[in-house]
Each structure stands twice: as C-alpha cells, then as structure tokens.
Amino acid sequence: MSDADIRPEIEFRSDVTVELVRASASDSDVLFAARVSTQGEQTLEEAQSGNEASARDRGLINYLMRDRHGSPFEHNSMTFYVQAPIFVFREFMRHRIASYNEESGRYRELRPVFYVPAPERNLLQVGKPGAYEFLPGTPEQHAIVDTATRDAAEFAFSAYQRMLAAGVAREVARIVLPLNIYSSMYVTMNARSLMNFLSLRTKVEGTHFPSFPQREIEMCAEKMEALWTELMPMTHAAFNANGRVSP
C-alpha cells in the first residue's frame, strides 16, 4: 500500500476555537459573596434584586479588586471548549487553577488538523528574558516557516497512518506527531482564576505587571476574555481599572 493510499487530506489552520459551553457567573455572584461579611446571610435573589447596577455595587467590586480581596470572585464557574495546537495546551496546563479534560490520542485516532502561523504572526524574538519584543519576519522567513511546517506535518501524519494501518496501538503511533497538531479540551475555572490567567497570557498596555505571552495562547485568552466580559462586565471593568492584577 502506498502513502497516497493511506494518507487522508490534511487541514491547516492559523486560528483557535473558544466557545463558552456552560456558565454560572455574574457580577451579582461577587456581591452576594462579599456582603455576607458585613450583612450576614443574604439570598441570591436579594443580591440580584436590582435590575441596574448601582454605583454602590460598582464601588464594592472595585474596592474588592483594588485591595485584593479575592475570595468573592471565586463563587462562579465558566466552562470553555477550546481547540488549539497541543503546544498551546501544554502552556494552559501550567496554570494549576482550572480543571481540564483533553481528548485522548490513546482512545481515538487523531484528526489531521495542524497549525501553521498566519502571515501576520511575528517571527523574531528580540531582547533579553522578561523583556522580549516580537517583530515581523521577512517574506523569506515566513516562506521557510510555512513550507517547513506543512512538510513536517504531512510527513509525520503519514508515518502515524502507516503505523495504525499495520496494527500498531494508537498510544504508540501518536508519538511521531508534532506539537502543532490540534487537540480539544474543556477547561473550567472561576473568575479569579481566569483573571490570573489573563494577567499572564495577554499583553495589554497599562498593566501593572507586563506580560510577554506566546501569541497562540494569547489568541485563546483574548477569546475567553471577550466571553467573560459579557457575563461579568463590572468585574471586568474593575480588573482593567486596577492594572489587570488578579485579586
């Protein structure tokens, strides 16, 4: 059997997928949790009784954020579905503040979907650790990256398919696959954990502690932040106003 007979069509992507699949998260959750300190027991219905956010509510959330009273931001939950290259997931899982369930290459045949950097992706890393600047590459450098990435993915997936066709176990055959193959996972975290993640994985002007994330995980973080902003606008505004530091 030739390689052409066993090689499925390979897909190349330059983006990531982030979807909010389940959420129990609102600004009223923060207020509900915080006010037990001063008002005692309060029902969630009482915390949500006002239709419009009051200046008092905004002030309380800003105070909690500014003075880093973090626990009221933990009484909520968001579950995201993420599709991204495996090297991005390895960075995600450095954050031991979330629950992860990723698809398994032991139990299912992996799909031939691979990441290739888009033309606008910066290629040059200049500077010293902790103060990197990322700059565009030349057209020739982009051409090398694009061609080499595609060739390596096609070669590796062909080897993977040959082993599977020969009866080799999926958990063994997968060892030849490169880090730019896409995987998928569910990740669940609360707003405090998400703010910690965003403070490290996004680069935004005006932050108290500048970060220099790899662009591909920043793409995921930006999509997660946009979804979270819809759920908890007051909390998000206070996060930005106080230098994007997790409380």
What is the average per-residue confidence, as pLDDT, rounded to a whole number? 91
> Span between N and C termini?
59 Å
CATH classification class: Alpha Beta
Largest sheet: 4 strands, antiparallel
Name the overall outline: globular
Helix content: 40-55%
CATH third-tier fold name:
Gyrase A, domain 2
Strand content: 15-25%
Q: Which regions have little confidence, pLDDT < 50, spanning 5+ residues?
A: none
What is the tally of beta strands? 8
Order of adjacent strands in the largest pleated sheet: 2-3-8-4
How would you classify the quaternary structure?
A: single chain
| H/E series | HEEHHHEHEEEEHHEHHH
What's the alpha carbon Rg, rounded to whole Å?
A: 22 Å
Structure report:
The protein has 247 residues and is an alpha+beta fold. The protein has helices at 3-6, 27-39, 44-47, 55-66, 86-92, 139-165, 170-173, 191-201, 215-231, 233-241, and strands at 11-13, 17-24, 77-85, 99-102, 113-115, 124-126, 133-135, 182-189. The chain has one domain (3-241): Gyrase A, domain 2, CATH 3.30.1360. 44% of the residues lie in helices and 17% in strands. A hairpin with a 6-residue loop joins strand 6 (124-126) and strand 7 (133-135). Helix 4 (55-66) packs across helix 10 (233-241) and helix 8 (191-201) runs antiparallel to helix 9 (215-231). The model has no long low-confidence stretch (mean pLDDT 91).
